Amino acid sequence: MFEEQRHHLIDRILQGTPTVVICSPPGFHKTRLARAAGQGIASSTGLALRWVDALEQARHPDAAVEILLSGKPHVTVVDGSSAPNGATLVQALERLGSAENHQRVILILQQMRDLPLARLSLSNPPDVIDAHHLRLPPQQKDRFIRQFLRPSVRRRIANLAGDWPIALDLLTQWASSTTSVPESWADFDILRDCGLADFIMQEVLPLFTTEELAALSRASLLETPDLAFLASLDSERPDDRTLADVSFRLKGLVDRDGDRITVQRALRVYLRETLDVLDGKSRPETLISLADHCSSEGRLGEATALARRAGRPERIQNYAQSHGALGVCIAHGVSVVKDFVQNSSADVIGRSTVLRMMECIVHMKAGRIRVAQKLFQDLAATVGPDDPFVRDLEIVRVTLMVYGCSLERTGDLEMLRKMIAEQAEDPALGTFLATLSCILNSQRARFDRAFANLIDARTQAKKAASRYNLMFLNMHEAAIYLAQGELKQARSCVAEAQRRWKNEFPHDIGVETVIAALSAAVEFEAGQLTRARNAVRRSAYRMPDAEAWFDIYFAAYETMIRLDQVEHGLGATLIRVEDEAQKLRAQGLPRVADLLVAIGLSVVGEARFKGVSASAVAHWKVPEISATASWQEREVFTLANAYALEQQGRVAQALHLLKAEREVARERGLRRSCLRYLLAEFSLTVLVGRSPLSDSLLREAILLGAQSGMRQIFSEFGSNILADSVAALLEGAEFNEAESQFARTILNRLRERRTTGLSKLSARELEVLQLLQAGGSDKHLARQLNISEHGIRYHLKSIFKKLDVHDRLAAVAAGRKLGLIS
């Protein structure tokens, strides 16, 4: 027990009721707490401390009763878990409660039923300190582990210890006394070597009946035991009822949260590894029986793990055959597909078409497209036209095309429409096929069709109870809204996807990557650079070894490139683009690599409008726009081509190209693309001076920005001419209140204020800004400047206001631009 926790509980006992019950299973340091509290009460009150433990009660069964009824006030600590005359002891406590006296009593129990306290609880209720109060607080535990253990063992020891104090004590002593923790050691090996296994055997197991141990052992074999699943097991007495009773009786070792049962981690490891014969079955028989039941109940990840531990990986082939590769992926997610592959052996995978398909899906979802394509080609060569999985294989081909970001074949969408009609009776496949159609139609900016696919996919997903695909449909909807420049709706969809992920699939890193990419794009468009940067770290920094499709690569990489330019300058950004493009080509994603190159060329072109010159990598070329190109490709390829034409002196041709593409984008509802084309056209027209045409283009851009909330793009074209033109429009143009407010916001962001910035920032604020670029918390900055955290926050607020920014990242960028920091 930690000092902070112990002092808090001692204070509670000192100031509490005359009778205190400290009740928890073994290993929660009850005796240590009772002794310290008893000594504290005796010291503060002058009362004599009497300790009645199991040894004294064995010699003199009435010792505690006689002390309580002696008429002299004492501080009495009683180990009630071994009281031979518990009813008499409770009667003595009841008498004390009805009389005026200064007796203080501390009872130590392992479970509340050790003493018949029901009557006492009604008449003179004691203060009960149970396992909930004695378990290890997470933050104090983390600090303790960081203080005493090497980084290499911290996570493993923390996981094994859980919130059980005795487990942390023994494991920490053991880990700190060993030079290294052998990686080959199983958790059970560690429990035995540190002495925790002996403690469980000697102190914990005697608390359970044979029936309870059987139920606990079965529950310990499962990753997430719950009462509904346990009730469905074929046993003499339902395990759910048994474990529900145990969770009330021995809270701390076995806990219940709703229908979910949690067994203390170390106890679970012990029970799982010491299982020999249960219900007349051998260990492998028990594991396979549970595995089969898990499969029938749809708990497929656990089924595969149990089959592997039973030494029967061939059983996994049966589960795969029953549920199908696509069925598992759609209903349960890619993490469960990965369980199938990881828990199977190489020879079992080689014999199974479904498992080979699953292996392809795992590599595809992890961004290893070249590997996935090779696996698919090898598999396709062995599947004949009459094979029952030929349809699934064709769907995997289209999925691989989507995740591999290949251009679809002309007839792919028609093929998907036909397959959706054929699978009307199979909602799981129906939702998957409709989702693929939604992605392809969205990328082609056919948003009416994409939304129709989205509605169909949701309807089918609900019928199939596919919560996983429902979560992804929120992401696809967010991608559509991003293209349409509807930031509020896009943010709402991302938030809903994130809620589903945290509640249902928190361990799926691929999902987190996709959500973070969309969040990065939304926040960047809205000008929230710090939030965008945090999201980029969880998305683009993981690519290309992460789950993504074309929309996600674009959202993450474009945001990363533009943020890199703000933070590190154009030269460093172009080097980063080249490195990422090479990785993408090696990974089998040349189309995404071409997209990055085009984004890099666009950034170079926009930088010239701000007076920053840089040369693109010599071999960079803008690809041709194909008939099946995505809207993202049309946008960045068009901009890159327009800037190339301008550099060649062919401004009129560049303007013609931008105007033509803007009309196409407007027809398709691509407000994001329209805004970029408008600002590019404006920047080209003002190269020879402001004109009615340039003012018209800028006014239209401001109107579009105000409607959508997209304001960061104005900073990308942030020349002095743009700032002056916005200011002139504010004086003469007719804007409504919202449009005027938007125009003033972007004007404040655009204005060059080096002189005013230098005069406005105080010496201390300049010091804070200098330190800010190195990062660090408010506390870290405060220590460096020897001022309070409140002072740091005050200075930051002033800096943000003076530089007209909203976060630290923007403040550093503004400081660099103004020459305030190097």
Brief summary of the model shown:
With 822 residues, the protein is mainly α. Helix 5 (86-98) links the parallel strand 3 (74-79) and strand 4.
Characterise this structure.
It is built from 47 helices and 9 strands. It has 822 residues and is mainly α. The chain has a 5-stranded parallel beta sheet. It starts with a helix and ends in a 5-residue tail after the last helix. Helix 21 (334-343) crosses helix 23 (353-365) and helix 33 (550-568) packs antiparallel against helix 34 (570-587). Strand 6 (254-257) and strand 7 form a beta hairpin. Residues 753-758 have low confidence and may be disordered.
Name the descriptors.
822 residues
Q: Which bin fits the share of residues in helices?
A: 55-70%
If you average the pLDDT, what whole number results? 87
Uncertain spans = 753-758
Strands in their spatial order, largest beta sheet: 2-3-4-1-5
Q: What is the makeup of the main sheet? A: 5 strands, parallel
Number of strands: 9
User: Could you say which overall geometry the principal axes of the C-alpha atoms support?
Assistant: globular
Residue share in β-strands: under 5%
> Which structural class matches the secondary elements?
mainly alpha
Tally of DSSP helical segments: 47
Estimated radius of gyration: 34 Å
> How far is the N terminus from the C terminus?
50 Å
